[in-house]
Amino acid sequence: MTLVVRCAWPRDDLMVDYHDHEWGVPAHDDRLLFEHLVLDGAQAGLSWRTILNKRDNYRRAFDNFDLEKVAGYGGRKIETLLQDAGIVRNRKKIESAIKNAQVSIAIQEKFGSLDAYFWEFVRGKTIVNSWKKLSDVPTTSLESDALSKDLKGRGMAFVGSTIMYAMMQAAGLVNDHIVRCFRHKQLVDSS
């Protein structure tokens, strides 16, 4: 029997499945990138496990993260979302998702896609780090600082550097699996 070595943070089946199949996989689909943006913003002050448990509810509540639909949400939809126990019922986070959808559409118009825009901050290629242990992994980077600053300048909210770094990790712009983790090599080999 082969011992599987993975990062230390996944401690239950849900988190292990997310770690083993999703976290760090390069995302190039605008809908998925917007989903990462919204969910990582929703996580502010909460655990990722909480958000991961609510992810299907978010997909339902936010029309599967359809940018055009979310950008068009008005007061009635906001009130409906504030009553939805399946998501984080925080008005500022909900309103930021709507504003961030509107800004994302403007980004698509200027850059051609969210994919082109986000990946520009890592020069089109995953940054592969070589951390030995979880405590080595930073919470921000020069790239997440630049991305955060640019998004804030465009009018987005809940896009601080720490949130953007988490999004970059999740969406595979950064490979922060520890070097002994089986996913580190898999993701490097697949790029």
Please give a structural write-up:
With 191 residues, the protein is mostly helical. The protein has one domain: Orthogonal Bundle (Endonuclease III, domain 1). It is built from ten helices and two strands, in the order αααααααβααβα. Strands 1-2 form a two-stranded parallel sheet. It is globular and about 55 Å long.
Can you lay out the helices and strands and say which pair or pack?
Blueprint: H1 13-21, H2 30-43, H3 48-61, H4 67-71, H5 75-82, H6 91-111, H7 114-120, E1 127-128, H8 142-153, H9 161-170, E2 174-175, H10 182-190
Parallel strand pairs: 1-2
How would you describe this structure in keywords?
mainly alpha, single chain, Endonuclease III, domain 1, two-stranded parallel sheet, 191 residues
- Count every beta strand, where a strand is a DSSP E run of 2 or more residues: 2
Q: Encode the helix/strand succession as letters.
A: HHHHHHHEHHEH
Proportion of residues in extended strands: under 5%
Mean pLDDT: 96
- Helical run tally: 10
Number of domains: 1
Question: Care to give the gist of this entry?
Answer:
With 191 residues, the protein is mainly α.
